[in-house]
Design goal:
The structure holds 2 protein chains of 2 kinds. Chain A is 77% helix and 0% strand. Chain A has helices at 2-26, 44-50, 53-86, 92-104, 107-121, 127-150, 156-163, 168-197, 200-205, 213-221, 227-254. In chain A, helix 3 runs antiparallel to helix 8 and helix 7 crosses helix 8 (168-197). Chain A is globular, with a radius of gyration of 22 Å. In chain B, 78% of the residues lie in helices and 2% in strands. In chain B, helix 3 (57-90) crosses helix 7, helix 8 (176-184) packs antiparallel against helix 9 (189-218) and helix 10 crosses helix 11 (234-244). Chain B has one domain (56-280): MetI-like fold (Orthogonal Bundle). Chain B has a two-stranded antiparallel sheet with strand order 1-2. Chain B is mostly helical. Classes of the chains: A mainly alpha, B mainly alpha. The interface between A and B is large, with 79 and 79 residues.
């Protein structure tokens, strides 16, 4: 009885999570523009997608933005985590407190505050403003991920390196960074995912010359249905699945050495 | 050289947070106290009118509705997420990892696209109604889309993993021996749940609650895609004040109110975490 209930709960939640996605993917192959009824298999929405350079450009922009923002956030966040781990400095508690507050700040609050900043400073909205905004909301995630891993290590490892004559930078490069590498990779992947998933912040701080995918899609699906969007979502999903599987395989191959 | 590295690593993140978090936050607070201006967005004099306007029935209604919808979505996430997180945390290793991965996979699809996927399911001629007809239902198709129900469904769909993951983290750490001890001392199922499990997992419940409730107030696109062009969430209100009505001070006031609310929730969270720790520490 209990076992059956358990299976039912798990199946129910997974159905809830995947049914809409399955419907989304299925309708990318449906030969009907307005009706939701099944009219047969077609690939014409994929052809329509290929003929829609704006949508493809927006998708490429989003990926470029996500890679850039995740990389910058990982570099600054890793250095920040090392600083929090290694040093006792004035304002250390406020710095980590601020990071936790930032972690929980609703996107819309961050979005309008950055919009205010960019308008006051006269920063034109585009790729630069998007990178700044995405780095800002990814930063606490990279710091927390890397810091969590560092705080599990024996601090004497770094002290030993220092005693043996390594400078701070060398100790970081040769001891801390290799140890923290899995967390750094995890932080980068998390940032990449957060950046791709973002709608709210991008909505406020992007400009016409650098349109990202969520905004392009937003104008298309607000009212009505667009099968091209289904086709694009299917392709992106398959792509991210392939990337994650590939990264898993790479990590697994590296582990034995 | 030592000092250079130390200063650079500390300074870089401190500088970033100061320029892109603290400074803009102060600007928003300042904006919320200014008066609207047509060409410069804001102007003097200082005023509290923007906060007073939040109590105008029109806007107070949006706030109350938004809080209600967000609270409902949070409770639903908890009711669905808790048993699920419990089962996952107690499952054997390969299953546990697989199930966790399956919770995360939907994140790889942009949440706007996920809201759109919910729309495909709920539409008048969508998947749900088609399934009902296929099962022999013959009445009017259900009008699910463009209702508050659709918005709640969308919020739950987009935010459920944020509830499951913190719940999983606390349940996984829960020492099964505590439950055995409670059972040995004669506690029944209900007592074990209310007096042992619930207090010990409370930090996870509050964490999940905060992670669902706060974004649920702001996800304007879920309300736009699934609820029609109505101001249902605080997020729609803020977005429209900033980008449509161009009343920045009022939008900023709504946003500051959100931050104050967040502060209160965080305080409740840390208080509950502290209490849970004390309880474990008790002899």
């Amino acid at each position: 009885m209990i076992a059956a209930l358990r299976v039912a709960v798990v199946a129910g939640v997974l159905l809830f999570l995947y049914l809409p996605l399955a419907v989304l993917f299925a309708f990318s192959f449906n030969d009907s523009k307005y009706s939701m009824a099944w009219k047969g298999f077609t690939l014409k929405w994929y052809e329509a997608l290929a003929a829609n350079p704006q949508l493809v450009d927006a998708a490429i922009h989003s990926v470029v933005l996500a890679v850039t923002a995740a990389t910058v956030a990982t570099v600054i966040g890793t250095l920040g985590a090392v600083a929090l781990y290694r040093y006792r400095f004035r304002g250390r508690a406020s710095l980590s407190g601020l990071l936790y507050v930032l972690l929980l700040t609703p996107d819309i609050v961050l979005a309008i505050s950055l919009l205010c900043l960019f308008v006051v400073l006269g920063v034109s909205l585009g790729f630069g403003s998007l990178v700044i905004a995405h780095v800002t909301f990814c930063l606490p995630f990279t710091v927390v991920t890397v810091y969590a891993r560092l705080s599990g290590f024996d601090p004497r490892l770094v002290e030993a390196a220092r005693d043996l004559g390594a400078g701070e930078f060398t100790a970081m490069r040769r001891v801390l960074l290799p140890l923290a590498l899995p967390a750094i990779v995890a932080g980068w992947l998390l940032s990449f995912t957060l950046s791709l998933d973002d709608v709210v912040v991008s909505y406020f701080v992007s400009g016409p010359e650098y349109e990202v995918l969520p905004l392009r899609i937003y104008s298309m699906v607000r009212l009505g249905f667009k099968p091209e969007v289904n086709a694009l979502a299917t392709l992106l999903f398959v792509l991210s699945l392939a990337i994650v599987l590939a990264s898993q395989l790479l990590l697994r191959q590296r582990r034995p050495s | 050289m030592q000092h250079v590295f130390r200063r650079a690593s500390t300074g870089l993140i401190a500088l970033w947070l100061a320029v892109f978090v603290l400074l803009p936050t102060l600007m928003v607070v300042a904006t919320s106290l200014l008066t609207r201006h047509d060409s410069h967005f804001v102007s003097l004099p200082l005023t509290l009118d923007n906060y007073a306007r939040l109590f105008d029935p029109l806007y107070a209604g949006v706030l109350v509705d938004s809080f209600g919808l967000a609270a409902l979505a949070t409770v639903l996430c908890l009711l669905v997420g808790y048993p699920f997180a419990w089962i996952v945390a107690r499952a054997r290793a390969p299953w546990r990892h697989l199930l966790l991965l399956l919770v995360i996979v939907p994140f790889w699809t942009n949440s706007l696209i996920r809201a759109y996927a919910v729309k495909l399911v709920l539409a008048t001629n969508g998947a749900l109604n088609s399934a009902l007809f296929a099962l022999g239902y013959s009445g009017e198709p259900l009008q699910l889309l463009y209702t508050p129900f659709a918005v709640v469904a969308g919020l739950v769909y987009v935010l459920l993993p944020f509830m499951i993951l913190p719940l999983y983290a606390v349940i996984e750490k829960l020492d099964p021996r505590l439950l055995e001890a409670a059972a040995d001392l004669g506690a029944g199922r209900l007592q074990r749940f209310v007096r042992v499990i619930l207090p010990l997992t409370l930090p996870g419940i509050v964490a999940g609650g905060v992670l669902v409730f706060l974004p649920a107030l702001g996800l304007f696109y879920v309300s736009d895609v699934l609820g029609g062009a109505k101001d249902l969430l605080v997020g729609n209100l803020v977005k429209n004040q900033f980008l449509v009505a161009r009343d920045w001070p009022f939008g900023a006031a709504a946003s500051v109110t959100l931050v104050v609310l967040m502060g209160l929730l965080l305080w409740a969270w840390s208080a509950s975490a502290r209490r849970a720790n004390q309880r474990i520490g008790e002899p």
